[in-house]
Amino acid sequence: MKGLEISFRDIGHSDAIEQNIREKASKLSSTFDDITSIRAVVAMPHNHSNKGRLAHVSLEVGLPGETVAITHDHHDNPEHENMYVAVRDAFEKAQRKVLKIHKRRADKSRRAGLVVNPI
To answer: Pfam families recorded for this chain (predicted)?
Structure first.
């Protein structure tokens, strides 16, 4: 996918995680072909000792005239000790947000095309 940037923070680089992100980004950009860029930041911040080390994946999805940011930290979700689950959840949320924007844009363009005839 063109325009994909992947960064790792507080964790070593993983080819497997990078490949997983590339696949999900490719799927997202093929679903919504007006995506101009995707920036993914994978982090394993130092959390409180009783919660373990939970993965954090944030995304910025570039659309014409707009950037969608997915930064929700799942600090209370123990499933996010698994990096793949964190990546999956971030891309699912990105897909929902981008779909919502597409529906809003389609609705605006549909309404702009309507001509109201005064009686």
So the answer is: Ribosomal_S30AE (PF02482)
